[in-house]
Fold this sequence. Notes:
Helix content is 62%, strand content 0%. It is mainly α. Helix 2 runs parallel beside helix 5 (125-146) and helix 4 runs antiparallel to helix 5. The longest helix has 26 residues, at 95-120.
Amino acid sequence: MKAAIAGLLAGAVCAGLIACASSPMQQAPATSPHTGPMPGDSHEQIVQWMTDIDRAKTDQAAVPASAATSCGPGCEAVADAVHTNDNTCSPPPTQTCTDVCKLGTTICDTKDKICNLAGQMHGDQWAADKCTDATASCTSAHEKCCSCH
């Protein structure tokens, strides 16, 4: 009889431990304060696009200004690489300017992605600030393209 009671008591203790271990009170809260990009979320995508912009800005700055050779046959027209319908922007069709303008287009296209996503994230000041930063980068890249000689 004592063995049966001891067995029941041991079983009850085990059941109690299992119940406590799986209790929601023992688990981490399902929501935690958002302190930065989380995997798979919109913030993470914006961070990746901002990294792409930074890389393109670095590449654009690295284009040697003294390498102003004319584009050969089949070279893409520089005007096609400019991201805007700015009729006052007409850099010469040199390889240097083509490279600078292509990088500028990449920066501005990425800015469009960031700002479109940020626009869907109503009330998210962090995303709005990234759109503002990306817009400034696009403006600067466009100016570099247009001032290319």
